[in-house]
Each structure stands twice: as structure tokens, then as C-alpha cells.
């Protein structure tokens, strides 16, 4: 089969378009013919050597959508999708014509989505669901403030929160594009600046948000804490521009804030499958929408796909298999 592989860490130029043995099914694994696979910022960071657990040589790629080509009879020909913090790191990933995954990782993709659209869901929506639903347990009566709502994870958080009936306030450097799913769904917008906490409290009768999902972190961490109401839950997934942070510990414990870290990379492809399955109804019912596909590339053009993501392309970048 054709695949992308890297044998050393570095810029996207270390990626090679190669022939590798096609994986085989066994008693514990199925083989999926990959129809489409997205390129995430974490894929670019993986190739660059940011993850100590990556084992070389490696085929990268976390997200995929495809068709089961080998495995249990009940799954043969089934359209499936998936993501995982192991594929592309400690086991070969989705930037190949075929991928071997555990039987427990099989999850039927939404019928409403094309393979191209389904391949763009994984990482962003899994980390959004993990934080919003599993960790914060957001309820319909609550307000959630989403820092970085215009980004991939932030947009997924907005959609999931609205589907659960919550009030959503976007906190971002610039207003959201009303043509995007997140831009259409938010209830209010607050600029991400030194006045963000003051403006949000004006919108919440002075109490703040029950849940704050901070997709920015680092330079925005103190702002995120300031948005939370008493006993609010603050979720952190990143450390943009600043790995170590300072904050007022007295204000923190007086507010009884709950601080939660969210790391979807800890979930392998099998552990991520239940979350992918939980998302299916939302897409098939129309409550959730696929993000915009900014650029498509053939597998042979994977280097260019990685370079586009590294350059900060807004919208999803997807590799379409021929």
C-alpha cells in the first residue's frame, strides 16, 4: 500500500511517500481502507518531535474515515470513523491507504457525513466532548464561556454545548464568522482582552459562567479563571505562548474554582471509539455540523498538507485517498 512515513523528526520535508506492506486483520484487529484522513496541528507537532512517546519509523495521522476491508463478518463493508492518541504515535496512523485498528475501535460513521467530512471530526470533537460532557458535565441551564471559540476545538465546544441546551458566550480575539456553525450558534461575543471578565459578568448578571472552556491557555489562563462563577469549572487543553502561569491563589480558593485538564491524546483509538459513537446522533440529526474543509490534498501531496497546517490554515486540511 501507499503511505506516508517519517524516520526522523523535523519539518514536513522528512515525510516520505512510500510503499509499505498492507496490514492484515487478526483475532483482535480489523483493517480499514482509509477514504479520507485529516491533518491536525498535533500531527505536525508529532513529526517535528514534540512527543517523547512516538516510536520511529512511523506513519502519522490521528483522524480517519473509511470502510472495513477485513475483520468480523458483521463489519465488512461498514463505513467507520475514528481517532486516537496512539495511532500515528506508537502504532501506524491514518495517512496511508489502509490502517489496522483494534476491534474495540470500530465505530460506524454518521450517514449524514461524507468520508471527507467525517475525517475532519475526530480530535477536535473528541476533546470538546471529553471536556464539556464527561468532565464538566455541562447542563442545559448553564452558561459556558469558550475561549478561542473561532478555532477547531472551540467551534466543536460551541456546537456540543448548544446541542445540550446551554447558553454559549464566545470569547475570542475577533468576532466569529456568522457563516460558520459556531458563528451561527453563539448567544453572545466578548473580545478576548483585559476587559473580558468585566464584559462577561455584565452578560451574566454579575456572576460569571458555570463552565469556562479555555482552548487557548497560557497567555489566556488568568482571563479564563476570571470568567468563572463561584464553584465554576475551568477546562484547560493548551498552553499557548506560556507554559508556566501565575494567578492569585486566594481569589482561586475563595471562588472555589474547579480546574480540570483535558488531554484527548491519552485516549487510544479504542478508548476514543465510544466518544465517536456518542457524536453520531448529533450529526445525523443535524444538531452538529461538520467544520469547513479549507484544503484537500492527495496522499502523495501530504508534505504540502502538513505545511498548510503548520502555516496556520483556518479550517480543516484533509487528505483524500485516490
From TrEMBL:
GO terms for molecular function: oxidoreductase activity. Keywords: NADP. Residues 10-319 form the Enoyl reductase (ER) domain. Transmembrane segments: none annotated. The keyword NADP applies. It comes from the Bacteria. The keyword NADP applies. InterPro entries: ADH-like_C (IPR013149), ADH-like_N (IPR013154), ER (IPR020843), GroES-like_sf (IPR011032), NAD(P)-bd_dom_sf (IPR036291), Zinc-ADH_QOR/CCCR (IPR051603). This is Zinc-binding alcohol dehydrogenase family protein. The lineage of its organism: Bacteria, Pseudomonadati, Pseudomonadota, Betaproteobacteria, Burkholderiales.
Amino acid at each position: 500500500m501507499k503511505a506516508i512515513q517519517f524516520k526522523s523528526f523535523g519539518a514536513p520535508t522528512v515525510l516520505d511517500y512510500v510503499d509499505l506492506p498492507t496490514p492484515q486483520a487478526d483475532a483482535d484487529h480489523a483493517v480499514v481502507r482509509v477514504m479520507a484522513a485529516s491533518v491536525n496541528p498535533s500531527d505536525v507537532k508529532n513529526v517535528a518531535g514534540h512527543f517523547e512517546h512516538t516510536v520511529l519509523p512511523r506513519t502519522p495521522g490521528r483522524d480517519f474515515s473509511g470502510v472495513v476491508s477485513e475483520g468480523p463478518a458483521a463489519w465488512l463493508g461498514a463505513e467507520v470513523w475514528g481517532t486516537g492518541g496512539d495511532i500515528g504515535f506508537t502504532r501506524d496512523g491514518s495517512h496511508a491507504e489502509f490502517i489496522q485498528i483494534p476491534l474495540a475501535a470500530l465505530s460506524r460513521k454518521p450517514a449524514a457525513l461524507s468520508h471527507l467530512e467525517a475525517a475532519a471530526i475526530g480530535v477536535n470533537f473528541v476533546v470538546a466532548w471529553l471536556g464539556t460532557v464527561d468532565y464538566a458535565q455541562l447542563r442545559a441551564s448553564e452558561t459556558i464561556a469558550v475561549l478561542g471559540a473561532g478555532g477547531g476545538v472551540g467551534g466543536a465546544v460551541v456546537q456540543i454545548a448548544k446541542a445540550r441546551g446551554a447558553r454559549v458566550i464566545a470569547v475570542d480575539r475577533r468576532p466569529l464568522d456568522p457563516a460558520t456553525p459556531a458563528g451561527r450558534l453563539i448567544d453572545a461575543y466578548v473580545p478576548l482582552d483585559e476587559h473580558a471578565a468585566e464584559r462577561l459578568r455584565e452578560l451574566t448578571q454579575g456572576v460569571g459562567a458555570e463552565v469556562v472552556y479555555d482552548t487557548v491557555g497560557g497567555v489566556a489562563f488568568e482571563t479564563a479563571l476570571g470568567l468563572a462563577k463561584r464553584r465554576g469549572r475551568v477546562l484547560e487543553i493548551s498552553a499557548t505562548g506560556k507554559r508556566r502561569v501565575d494567578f492569585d491563589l486566594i481569589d482561586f480558593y475563595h471562588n472555589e474554582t474547579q480546574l480540570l485538564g483535558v488531554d484527548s491524546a491519552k485516549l487510544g483509538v479504542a478508548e476514543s471509539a465510544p466518544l465517536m459513537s456518542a457524536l453520531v446522533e448529533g450529526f445525523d440529526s443535524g444538531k452538529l455540523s461538520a467544520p469547513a474543509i479549507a484544503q484537500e490534498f492527495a496522499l502523495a501531496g501530504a508534505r504540502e498538507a502538513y505545511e498548510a497546517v503548520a502555516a496556520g490554515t483556518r479550517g480543516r486540511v484533509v487528505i483524500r485517498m485516490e
